[in-house]
């Protein structure tokens, strides 16, 4: 595979962009190669600047649940752009998307749009602090909630991938207000919350962890979290930036039937345009300015292009059997990957929830950050490079998820499985 133009672009980019990338994990350092530069994408395929075609299992890290450039979304964006790309004023489109989101996500009564998942989580935590008058937040090791200061403590995603324990630039005063505890450990959860309930404003959790690779909540974990936070006067925040509109139209809270107090969204609700949102019970949301004293604002918040793309994306999700069919595709793919590992004799633990999955290169179960870290990341690097050379575009880290989209055809999935089998056998 020839990637000469990508190579040249990367050298040029490194001169003007730190590390040559606008988000660290894209630099592909943990998988031991340089990134390919993407030129365009359509449906399940992405094409690089050298003209190579790949089946895309990254899907822009989740938003492209219908694949790339579906006509409905492209048309909506083009039509909207003709009326200007931003007003910094209320629009009917933001009201329409807010209504759709509130109708879809069971625990939401009101929602506020922002420009990224990070802004959503950061604002939700500020709101929880304002509402409770308490400062401490509890998160879980290996979960990622964006790059706001309070979250960069034992965080997942690029922070694990690059082995950064905590980030310089985050003041000690902020670190001391974040407690990070193991995911799926009911006992430590209960001890921590009971011991410090007077100081804890909120618990923020990925209801299915997607940023240490895919890790499902245990049967008891989310319910325990809900019961304890309700009892102790702590706000429960579900970070559904990945799971929202992905596991079900109403997200993980519908999938598991557990209702948080606040929910953070992003990715799918913007159809690939920059967006985030946070919402919840009116009683809490009414604390936000201008109704209440908790300040949060944004020049481009509710941007018309993002709203138009989001509306079109959500309308497509309402097709009959959408989630059933998507999850069946994912199940087919996961079964194929398991068979490939078995026939090659490679130890792989495949975790899947709906259309999210990760094959960890380890034989032991992966239920939290500690067990995820047992996976052989170097082996994943070899697998990543081999798959790329065969036209399969995977996340450039062992600690991320593969996304299945509605655009993946049977042929795409079969090719993905066949190449996985080849790659595993090639490294056995
Ligand atoms: C669960 C979760 N929360 C928050 C974020 C932050 O979103 P963004 O990258 O849009 O700031 C991400 C992804 O990056 C995420 O996966
Ligand atoms: N894991 C992140 C999002 O879900 C990866 C995206 C990024 O940080 O660039």
Automatic annotation (TrEMBL):
Enumerate the catalysed reactions. Answer: (S)-4-amino-5-oxopentanoate = 5-aminolevulinate
MF terms (GO), sorted A to Z: glutamate-1-semialdehyde 2,1-aminomutase activity; pyridoxal phosphate binding; transaminase activity
Q: Does the keyword Cell inner membrane apply?
A: no
User: Where is this protein primarily located?
Assistant: cytoplasm
Q: Which residues form a coiled coil?
A: none
One Pfam family, please name it. Answer: Aminotran_3
Where does this protein reside within or beyond the cell?
Answer: Cytoplasm
What InterPro entries does UniProt report for this protein, alphabetically? Answer: 4pyrrol_synth_GluAld_NH2Trfase (IPR004639), Aminotrans_3 (IPR005814), Aminotrans_3_PPA_site (IPR049704), PyrdxlP-dep_Trfase (IPR015424), PyrdxlP-dep_Trfase_major (IPR015421), PyrdxlP-dep_Trfase_small (IPR015422)
Q: What broad class of enzyme is this?
A: isomerase
* Pathway assigned to this chain's UniProt record: Porphyrin-containing compound metabolism; protoporphyrin-IX biosynthesis; 5-aminolevulinate from L-glutamyl-tRNA(Glu): step 2/2
Q: GO terms for CC?
A: cytoplasm
Q: Using the record's annotations, give every residue carrying the modification N6-(pyridoxal phosphate)lysine.
A: 267
What Enzyme Commission number does this protein have?
5.4.3.8
The UniProt keyword set, sorted, is:
Cytoplasm, Isomerase, Porphyrin biosynthesis, Pyridoxal phosphate
Q: Which cofactor does it need?
A: pyridoxal 5'-phosphate
**One GO BP annotation here?**
protoporphyrinogen IX biosynthetic process
Report the NCBIfam families cross-referenced here.
hemL, PRK00062.1
What family is it from? Answer: Belongs to the class-III pyridoxal-phosphate-dependent aminotransferase family. HemL subfamily.
- Tell me how this protein assembles: Homodimer.
Instruction: State the name under which the record lists this protein.
Output: Glutamate-1-semialdehyde 2,1-aminomutase
Species name for this entry?
Desulfocapsa sulfexigens (strain DSM 10523 / SB164P1)
